[in-house]
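Throughout our pipeline, every protein is held as a single compact record rather than as scattered files. Nothing more is needed to write down the fold, since each code stands for a local backbone conformation. The record that follows is passed on verbatim for readers who wish to inspect the format.
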Amino acid sequence: AAHRVAKVLGYSAVNMFSSDVNEDLAATQLPHKFYPDIRARSNSTAPGCDWYGAGFPCQPFSMAGLHLGVNDHQERGLLVANSLDYVEKKRPGLVILENVPGILTRPHLKLVAWIIRTLQSFGYQTWQQILNTADFGVPHHRSRVYIVAILHSKLRRNFQWPVPVPTLPLDEFLLRGRINHAAGLGQ
């Protein structure tokens, strides 16, 4: 998605760094730098970027989970604080945070309010919305909460959420992907 958006805007997207507890993902991310534990990343010395995206762990907020949120025994519910520390230190123009819709349930609303207040205190205008991948051309239902934050100094026009597009049946989606890949057009 980052590469497509950058291309539309006339830029090239470069993955400056990634982080995941699954170190095998380092090979699939192609980052300049991979952090196996985001808590070990020094946000002061980490590379800066124009667009910062973070999907902090969903398990503490999932409707299927224990709903421990910030009280998660593995401290996964607190990892968003590290992302916000990075945002404070590096001030990327665009920030996109993503999580499961369960984060908008009563036990976690204070955390969401804190995230938004924190971003606003850093000089960002914020928006939040639940989007489902099935509404955007991907034949898979995957609803997620997105928090978009744009630095006031970078905001050139009002932000608008994307308009849903028709989703192809899975077989046609896969066929088009194979044809595009064979033709060198990407996905």
Remarks:
- The longest strand covers residues 124-132.
- The helical segments are 2-9, 26-29, 80-90, 109-121, 170-182.
- Residues 69 and 75 are 9 Å apart (CA to CA).
- The mean pLDDT is 84.
